[in-house]
Amino acid sequence: MTLRILYHGLGMAGKTTNLEKLREIYSDYVSDRIHQQTSEGRTVYLDILSLSIKTRSGDKEIGVELFTTPGQERFRILRKWIFGRVDGLVLVLDSTRSLEENLRAYEEVKEYGLSGVPMVLQLNKRDVGNLSPEEVRVAFGDVPLMEAVAIAGMGVAETFRAVLKEALNAKATAG
Ligand SMILES: Nc1nc2c(ncn2[C@@H]2O[C@H](COP(=O)(O)OP(=O)(O)OP(=O)(O)O)[C@@H](O)[C@H]2O)c(=O)[nH]1
Ligand SMILES: [Mg+2]
Asked: Which of 70, 94, 120, 131 sits CB 3.0–4.6 Å from 43 for a disulfide?
C-alpha cells in the first residue's frame, strides 16, 4: 500500500519546509526524494518525499509519498496533475497572512475536487504570525488543527502523524 499525502497552502506558507524537516526526522525511512526549485528557493514543479514506514504492530510496511503544490501563480497549470490521487491533505496555513487569504488556498482544494479527502490543518509560522487558532477553528469547524513552527521543526511530525492517521482511518473504512 502506498499513501499519497499532499501539502497544500499559499505560496511561501512553509510546505517545502515541512518536507525538509520530515526528511531529517525520518531520515532512516527515506527511500527517494525530488526537489525542484527556482533560484529564489520557490518550488518549481513539486517536492516529493518518499518514505517507507512500518505500522505500529510492525508487521506491515507502507509507502508514504509526500508532495507539495508549487505556490507560485505561474505554475498553476501543473496543479491539475499533482492533484490526481490524494489520500490525505495537509492544508498549511500561514499565520502571517489573513484568514481570507488562507481560505483561498482551501478554495483551490475544493476546485480540484479534493474536498472529500481526509484533511488536517497546520497553522504554521507561529513564531512570527498573528492569525489565531480560534479564528481558524470557527472557519473550518471540526478539522484537526496543529500549530507549528516548521523552520524549527515544531509541529511537523505531529502534523504528519495526524494526517497519516486520518488517511489510514479513511482507507480502513473504505475497506
Ligand atoms: N518564521 C518562519 N518562517 C518559516 C516557517 N516555515 C517556513 N518559513 C520560511 O518561509 C519561507 C517559505 O517556506 P517554503 O517552505 O519554501 O514555502 P512553500 O510553501 O514551499 O513555498 P512555495 O514552494 O513557493 O509555494 C522560507 O523562507 C522558510 O524558511 C516558520 O514556521 N516560521
Ligand atoms: Mg515549496
From this structure: 70
